[in-house]
Design brief:
Pfam families: EHN. With 359 residues, the chain is an alpha/beta fold. 45% of the residues lie in helices and 14% in strands. It is built from 15 helices and 9 strands. β8, α13 and β9 form a beta-alpha-beta unit.
Length: 359
C-alpha cells in the first residue's frame, strides 16, 4: 500500500531517438480531395512541428509542476497527480481521462478546481505513466474498483467522480461500486445507446432524432477505430509502437482539427515515451468482453455536453442512470470533445456548481 513520489524525466536518448525516427518518416500516398481519413497534410504538419517546434521539456515541466505519485493497486502500477486544497475538509474529486487523451486533458483545469477541491488525476491503467498493463482484465469496472481503492488509500471518505470520454464511462462505475463514499458523478458524455426495442424511438423529439442521425453517421463513417481496438488491438500495436508518425495519424482521427498542436503532441508524446499506445487500446478489447451491469447507476449525475461532441440522448441515458440531476449543453464558445482544455472556465464552473450543490 506504499505511495511513492514520481517525476516525469524522459531520458535525452529517448528524445534523440524520436527525432531520428521523425526525420526518416515515409509519408503515405493519398488521392487529393478524397475523404478517406486523416490527411497527409495534417500528419506532415504535425510531424514537422514535433521535430522543429514542439518543446517536450516545457510540457514535462508543466506536468512536474504538480505533485505526482505512483502506487500499486490490484497488481498494477497506478500513476496520479494529487493536488491538495488548503482546506483539509474540502471535497475530493477524481478526474478520469479517455483515449486518445491522457492526464494532459486536465492540466488547464487543475488551478480553478483546486481552489475548491482536493484533486486526484490518475493515468488509466495501461495508459501513459501507469502503463503498460501486463495482465488481462482491466475493463471499466476493474478500473473503477481501483479508483475506489486509490481514494480510500489517500484517506478520502467523501469524493466526487469526474470524467471525459472513457472517463465518462468509468466515473459512473465508480459511483456504482463505491456508493457510500461517492457524492456525485460529473461527465461530459453519457454513452447510452438504443437497446433495439422499437418502443424506445416513439415520440423522440426532433432534436433527439437529429442526435441519433449524428451517432449513426459517426458509427458508419468513423467507428472503425472502435471495431479494430475491440477485436485486434495487438495487430495495430506493432505499428503504433514503431512509428511516431503512424501513432500521430491514428490518434488525430479523434483530436478535433481546431485543437492546438501542443495539446495534440503532448498526448501523443506521453504515449510514445511510455510505450503505451498499444497497451491503452486494449481497454476496448476488455470492455467488449465483460458483462455490462444491468441495473442503472444511482449516484447523483450531471452531464455537461458541448456542441460538436457526442450527442447524449436523455431517454436512453435515464435507462442507464437513474439519478440524473443536471443535464445541459455548455454555453458557447465551448465546443468539441476536450472542454477541460478548450473551454476550461465553462466546464470547471459547471463542475464546481454541481458538487457545491451536493454538500
Amino acid at each position: 500500500m506504499s505511495i511513492s513520489r514520481f517525476r516525469v524525466e524522459i531520458p535525452q536518448t529517448d528524445l534523440d531517438d524520436l527525432q531520428a525516427r521523425l526525420a526518416l518518416t515515409r509519408f503515405t500516398h493519398e488521392i487529393p480531395g478524397a475523404d478517406q481519413g486523416v490527411s497527409v497534410e495534417r500528419v506532415r504538419r504535425l510531424v514537422g512541428y514535433w521535430r522543429d517546434g514542439f518543446d517536450w521539456r516545457a510540457q514535462e515541466a508543466r506536468l512536474n509542476a504538480h505533485p505526482q505519485f505512483t502506487t500499486e493497486i490490484d497488481g498494477q502500477n497506478i500513476h496520479f497527480i494529487h493536488v491538495r486544497n488548503d482546506n483539509p475538509d474540502a471535497l475530493a474529486l477524481i478526474l478520469t481521462h479517455g483515449w486518445p487523451g491522457s492526464i494532459a486533458e486536465y492540466l488547464e483545469a487543475v488551478e480553478p478546481l483546486s481552489r475548491h477541491f482536493h484533486l486526484v488525476i490518475p493515468s488509466v491503467p495501461g495508459y501513459g505513466f501507469s502503463g503498460p498493463a501486463d495482465e488481462l482484465g482491466w475493463n471499466n469496472q476493474r478500473i473503477a474498483r481501483a479508483w475506489a481503492e486509490l481514494m480510500a488509500r489517500l484517506g478520502y471518505t467523501r469524493y466526487g467522480a469526474v470524467g471525459n470520454d472513457g472517463g465518462s464511462m468509468i466515473s459512473p462505475e465508480v459511483g456504482r461500486i463505491d456508493p457510500d463514499h461517492v457524492v456525485g458523478v460529473h461527465v461530459t458524455q453519457l454513452f447510452s445507446f438504443p437497446s433495439g426495442d422499437p418502443a424506445e424511438f416513439a415520440g423522440l423529439s426532433e432534436e433527439d432524432q437529429a442526435g441519433l442521425a449524428v451517432l449513426d453517421w459517426f458509427w458508419k463513417e468513423k467507428g472503425a477505430f472502435n471495431v479494430l481496438h475491440s477485436q485486434q488491438p495487438q495487430t495495430l500495436a506493432h505499428a503504433l509502437a514503431d512509428s511516431p508518425a503512424g501513432l500521430l495519424g491514428w490518434l488525430v482521427q479523434l483530436f478535433d482539427e481546431d485543437l492546438d498542436d501542443d495539446f495534440v503532441l503532448t498526448n501523443a508524446a506521453i504515449y510514445w515515451f511510455t510505450g503505451t499506445a498499444g497497451s491503452a487500446i486494449r481497454q476496448y478489447w476488455e470492455n467488449a468482453r465483460v458483462e455490462q451491469p444491468k441495473e442503472p447507476t444511482t449516484a447523483p449525475t450531471a452531464l455537461a455536453m458541448a456542441e460538436g461532441d457526442f450527442k447524449s440522448i436523455r431517454r436512453f441515458a435515464e435507462r442507464d442512470h437513474a439519478n440524473i440531476v443536471s443535464w445541459k449543453t455548455l454555453p458557447a464558445p465551448a465546443h468539441g470533445h476536450y472542454t477541460a482544455h478548450t473551454a476550461t472556465e465553462a466546464l470547471t464552473s459547471d463542475v464546481i456548481a454541481f458538487f457545491e450543490g451536493l454538500r
